[in-house]
Amino acid sequence: ETGVTQSPTHLIKTRGQQVTLRCSSQSGHNTVSWYQQALGQGPQFIFQYYREEENGRGNFPPRFSGLQFPNYSSELNVNALELDDSALYLCASSPPGLPPASREQFFGPGTRLTVL
Amino acid sequence: SQQGEEDPQALSIQEGENATMNCSYKTSINNLQWYRQNSGRGLVHLILIRSNEREKHSGRLRVTLDTSKKSSSLLITASRAADTASYFCATDPGGSEKLVFGKGTKLTVNP
Q1: Gap from B78 CA to chain A (nearest CA, Å)
Q2: In whole angstroms, what is the distance from residue B87 CA to residue B17 CA?
Q3: CA distance B72 to B78
Q4: Which of B30, B45, B88 sits opposite A101 (nearest CB)?
């Protein structure tokens, strides 16, 4: 069983540019969540996708957007990059069929984004 | 905002010793999960404890949950150098599956 994968591993962009990060969920997992982890901090929830629809959003501006595809893979897009967007971006997936109280989230290795 | 707060922020022990980390949170939860992170890489899921459970074991890990005090603890017994990592607790307020993490405890196990 393949775990959650993310690409690219590292990315360097300049302020004002746009970036797309990709995530393939663990096989059979239909819920994908994205998190931002700044250096020295815990991850912060950006948004979640379930069956291709956004299913909740954290305190992030609209220039953070996402997609989920029929195969449950997902993209995170960030427009008009700012220096503070430099962080590790983590994708997590969770399986169907379990009650929410028992549903674990499995994380990918992350994409480290540096904005210069 | 970060609901969970881990304590201590940093912990340094010798191999073979036990390590205890604590987590406090603010709102009602469906479950609490503990994760490990090595050197700013991805999070590894360690254990999930449901709100109606008080204690859970997995190998050398023991997790307790006290919902009346809104706190949890993670005990790693007989620690190894490979346990060196940051440990995070995460809660899902209201069962939303939108995890809220603390800032983590950085554990160093010296050989």
Answers
A1: 26
A2: 17
A3: 20
A4: B30
Structure tokens at B60: 């050398």
For residue B32, which phi and psi values (nearest 5 degrees)? Answer: -130, 135
pLDDT in tens, B44-73: 999 999 999 999 999 999 999 999 999 999
Question: Is B42 an 8 Å CB contact of chain A?
Answer: yes
Residue-wise pLDDT tens digits, A34-51: 999 999 899 999 999 988
Q: Which residues contact A47 (CB under 8 A, 6 or more apart)?
A: A33, A34, A54, A55, A56, A57, A58, A60, A64, A66
For residue B81, give the 3-state DSSP assignment. Answer: helix
Is residue B52 exposed (0-12), middle (13-18) or buried (19+ Cβ within 10 Å)? exposed
Measure the CA–CA gap between B13 and A36, rounded to whole angstroms: 30
Mutation target vs A (from B25, B43, B58, B103; most A CBs, 10 A cutoff):
B43
Cross-chain residue pair A110–B30, CB shorter than 8 Å: no
